[in-house]
Design goal:
- By secondary structure, this protein is mainly beta.
- It is built from 3 helices and 45 strands.
- The strands form 11 sheets. A 6-stranded antiparallel beta sheet has the order 8-7-4-3-38-39, with no helix packed on it.
- A hairpin with an 8-residue loop joins strand 15 and strand 16.
- The N terminus is likely disordered.
Length: 547
């Protein structure tokens, strides 16, 4: 488990990155490069969440059978209601320390399989639902060196399995849908304690297939929720439980939701001082109609190779279709600090579900949303490890993307199957981390990490940039850490603050003045990663708390 400590000084990081023999560097940096961080963390990283202390919480499910991560000191979990061994002396959750490249076992008491969650404004991870005895649980993880999961029995009104969560401007989480749950509810229960019917979820439910689980949920800039399921979307006023807008069906009508699993992001929000702020959603990949049923019969249909993009704030919104260089089902979409989108993981044929995917897509694809249509996609260097059903990806503070998971099997299976259970962790480093950009890369000097910032206020960020500075190509971005599972990063959000003014201080130092987001509709309170971008090259991030 041991490995050299990552040194997060920019220049030293680049030297370390290129020289450490224990990190397998698979490809050149021109189109990104891959590192194998851990051959095995003992569990399959089916769910993943970055915390404010640069640790990543991961978990799979308690009913996989014994994992390869034993509890220390002979500890065992006793659960008479579990569908796997009632006494299990192995962990099904782990905490990975990004800075030291080490991990430790965590304890979940009930089944967290196919659950959901988000980071609360205080920085705690609140995770909801799961399977069997875990389906109405609320679990809390507080970031600290020795903390472990705390569970709240019956913390949910409804059983939540394959639901989606989002943080709201008032600091609560909304939990939307789940298997056979055509409704939503909130945690904590300080305002509303019951569930609220959402007929849209039953309307988008394909009989016998579903195609509407893990709906894509985004907070719009007007405070309403954009909810996408199957092949279409609504705008929901969750306070009054009224649909305020119905969006058209994506052209072609093919499903994009589980098990015909595509992915989606709210594209970076910018021009934040404007009276009316535009918001766009991008949905990519998925599986054609009938793919899930055909895969059950042993016929694996090619995944969708299209993305659909829509301005959700327009009075007459329409989907604009784009073609990806690689078809992809079960892919993940990660917002990078500079506003680009990384499409990663997944399969080229088949569907989500047990052993229903084929032809792993090993190459990520970069999407540049500000380029002209037709020039936005760029294929990146491939990994050698298939990341199929139950894979994950998450942005780290240093700008890398952490990649883990892949278990299309009903238990931990390492032999005799097409795609064995994958316990490894990798990191993908986009080309912006290449050492050739070291003189362009900003280093944040102030504020210090974990500083508090207020809404609608001037914020001065001091940086060092060694090379020549193009002041019109300097911006500050804020990224919300997302809860990733089943190809959807819940609560993922990037705000581009641009810059109001840049002042040269001498000795390669600069002050960058920006204005923070004006309301919780734009950016719910809580912890964000703040980056400075120069000519598309991001600094390492610092944590800030918006309040």
């Amino acid at each position: 488990m041991s490995a050299p400590t990552f040194i997060f000084s920019i220049l030293l990081f680049q030297l370390l990155f290129a020289s450490q023999p224990c990190h397998r560097i698979l490809t050149s940096a021109a189109d990104g490069q891959w590192q194998l961080l851990q051959k095995s963390i003992g569990i399959a990283a089916m769910h993943m969440q970055l915390l404010r202390n640069d640790r990543v919480v991961m978990f799979d499910r308690t009913d996989f059978g014994p994992s390869n991560l034993p509890f220390p000191n002979g500890k065992c979990r006793n659960d008479p209601t579990d569908t796997a061994p009632k006494v299990d002396c192995t962990a099904h959750s782990a905490e990975y320390d990004v800075l030291t490249n080490k991990f430790r076992a965590l304890t979940v008491q009930t089944d967290v399989w196919c659950s959901s969650g988000a980071i609360m404004p205080d920085g705690n991870l609140v995770q909801t639902g799961g399977f069997n005895d875990g389906e109405r649980r609320v679990r809390v993880f507080t970031p600290c060196m020795t903390c472990d999961w705390q569970e709240i029995p019956n913390g949910l009104v409804a059983k939540r399995w394959y639901a989606s969560n989002h943080i709201l401007p008032d600091g609560r989480q909304i939990i939307v849908g789940g298997r056979r749950q055509f409704n939503y509810e909130f945690v904590p229960k300080n305002i509303a304690t019951n569930t609220f019917n959402l007929p849209f979820l039953s309307e988008t439910n394909d009989r016998g297939v579903e195609n509407n689980l893990y709906p894509f949920v985004f907070l719009n800039v007007d405070g309403n929720l954009f909810i996408f399921a199957n092949n279409r979307a609504i705008l929901l006023d969750y306070v009054t439980n009224k649909v305020v807008k119905t969006y058209p069906t994506i052209p072609g009508g093919d499903p994009r939701s589980y098990p015909s699993t595509g992915s989606a992001v709210l594209l970076p929000l910018n021009n934040l001082k404007a009276p009316a702020i535009q918001a766009e959603v991008l949905v990519c990949g998925g599986a054609p109609k009938g793919s899930y049923v055909q895969a059950l019969r042993g016929k694996f249909i090619g995944a969708l190779n299209t993305c659909a993009r829509i301005k959700i704030t327009d009075p007459n919104p329409q989907w604009v279709m784009e073609t990806m260089p690689l078809a992809r089902v079960m892919g993940d979409m990660v917002l990078l600090p500079n506003g680009n989108v990384l499409l990663i993981n997944g399969a080229g044929t088949g569907s989500a579900g047990w052993e229903l995917g084929r032809n792993p897509v090993l190459s990520p694809v970069l999407y540049r949303p500000d380029n002209k249509i037709g020039t936005r996609f760029e294929t990146q260097n491939p990994t050698t490890i298939p990341r199929m059903y139950h894979s994950t990806a998450a942005l780290l503070r240093d700008g890398r993307v952490l990649v883990g998971g892949s278990n299309p099997n009903t238990f931990y299976n390492f032999t005799g199957v097409l795609f064995p259970t994958e316990l490894s962790l990798e990191a993908f480093s986009p080309a912006y981390l290449d050492a050739q950009f070291s003189k362009l890369r900003p280093t944040i000097v102030a504020p210090k990490s974990s500083s508090g910032i207020k809404y609608g206020k001037k914020l001065t960020v001091q940086v060092v940039i060694r090379g020549k500075v193009a002041q019109n190509l300097v911006s500050v971005t804020m990224v919300a850490p997302a809860f990733n599972t089943h190809s959807f990063s819940m609560n993922q959000r990037l705000l581009d603050l641009r810059n109001d003014k840049i002042t040269a201080l001498g000795k390669s130092s600069y002050n960058i003045d920006v204005t923070t987001p004006r309301s919780g509709n734009l950016a719910p309170g809580g912890f964000y990663l703040l980056f400075v971008i120069h000519q598309g090259i991001p600094s390492q991030g610092i944590w800030v708390k918006l309040q």
